[in-house]
Amino acid sequence: MLVDTSIIRRRQSRQVMVGKVAIGGGAPVTVQSMTTTKTADVDGTLAQVYALAAAGADIVRITCDSEDAAVALTHVVPRSPVPIVADIHFQYRLALAALEAGVQKVRLNPGNIRKPEHIKAVASEARDRNVPIRIGVNAGSLDKELLERYGEPTPEALVESARREIDLFNEVGFDDIVISLKASSVPLMVGAYRSMAERVDYPLHLGVTEAGPLPGGLVKSSAGIGALLLEGIGDTIRFSLTADPVEEAKAGKLLLESLGLRERRGLDLIACPSCGRAEVDVISLAEEAQRRLEELGMKFQVAVMGCVVNGPGEARGADLGIAAGKEKGHLFIRGQVVRVVPESEIVDALIEEAERLRDEGFEARLAEADADAAALAERTRAERLAVDVDPNHTSEHAERARDIASGDE
Ligand code: SF4
Question: Tens digit of pLDDT for each residue in 98-116?
């Protein structure tokens, strides 16, 4: 069954509680990331958990790969600002230890914990403690028998791996389950999630595993996770990047914001890609504007546009923007040019306007707009459009192109 959420009709899944954070059942899609510290380093791990939470992570996963790690979790979990998931591979006893440590969720890999009695022991303990488990199927560590049967990781093989685990969980009366079917191949993971979404109503945790370093990792993850979210599939997401995990949390948050699945909580700086018309260095201008506006904690949508010809019109939806032209910056608010400043003062003026908008509001600022600014911007725009495109007049092609452009031919 599908339910309406803005333009995305989300698949209706059952709800699972990870501590106080809901996954599925119509709850907002959550962002996850994973620490890279040694878990036994309690202070270092906690510092990273806080950094991830500040960057947008709602839930953080921590490896529980040793006895020391399990003990460390007893110190990390009570001090964490967000629910903690213990990541378990190979040793089911570490899952039991993590549950004892108080984690709010466990991730099991069905590819490397295969004895039914071990799986059921963990599920029983989780059931008694009301703690959910994510069945984390991974194409790279698929159960050997399934790999032999299917010849290679396929959507069907990933789905079957999860289904076997679900059956074992259900045998002990446990169904507080989240499922992930990750692969480094985007088409493979998309196919597997689509198939799973049709078969069960458990919430789905989306990810492209081992997506790699930036920018390829971002592209693959955004393609796979974004495609599924647009289809309404997915209740929680993780970008698996070969980068500082803070980048994963930021990327997850930004993806949800860009799809309209999460309210924007910070600055949204849009900038034109620049082109031959640009009259300033758009890249450095945008970077400086972003840094200074973020330092101020601004939550507007701000546009940095390379020229006055198209800038204000293209960024009409932005709260505040700047468009360059004839060594000047044309400041606009929601598409209306309100002030013109020298090029050297562009960023300072942008910051000043942002502060005024924050303090005085849009209506007051628009009421005080410089009446001459819009006319000046329009004159600059007209002049720019009239500029000769080939001042050297050296080629026949240029002459001919000019004739065509001026309508002489
Ligand atoms: S705003 Fe101007 S400079 Fe930027 S891409 Fe558009 S036309 Fe080019």
Answer: 999 999 999 999 989 999 9
pTM of the model: 0.83
| Ligand 1 site-directed mutation target among 272, 316, 385, 389, most atoms within 8 Å of CB | 272
Phi-psi region of 179 (alpha: psi -120 to 50; beta: other; left: phi over 0): beta
Give the binding-site residues of ligand 1, using a 6 Å CB cut-off: 272-275, 277-278, 305-307, 309-311, 314
Residue 183 DSSP label: B
- 8 A C-beta contact, residue 108 and residue 133: yes
In the chain the domains, ranked by start, together with CATH numbers, are 2-258 (3.20.20.20), 268-386 (3.30.413.10)
- Which whole-number Å values give the CA distances from 293 to 4, 164, 267, 268, 396, in the listed order? 34, 51, 7, 10, 49
> What residue owns the CA closest to ligand 1's atom 6?
310
Mean pLDDT of the chain: 91
155 and 192 Cβ atoms separated by less than 8 Å: yes
Residue nearest to atom 8 of ligand 1 (CA): 275
Give, in degrees to the nearest 5, the angle at Cα 264 between 258 and 265: 140
The DSSP code for 27 is P
Q: Can you give the pLDDT at residue 395? A: 57
Best of 283, 307, 322, 385 for a ligand 1 pocket test (most atoms within 8 Å of beta carbon): 307
What would the DSSP string read from start to end of 386-398? Answer: HS-S-TT---HHH
pLDDT in tens, 79-102: 999 999 999 999 999 999 999 999
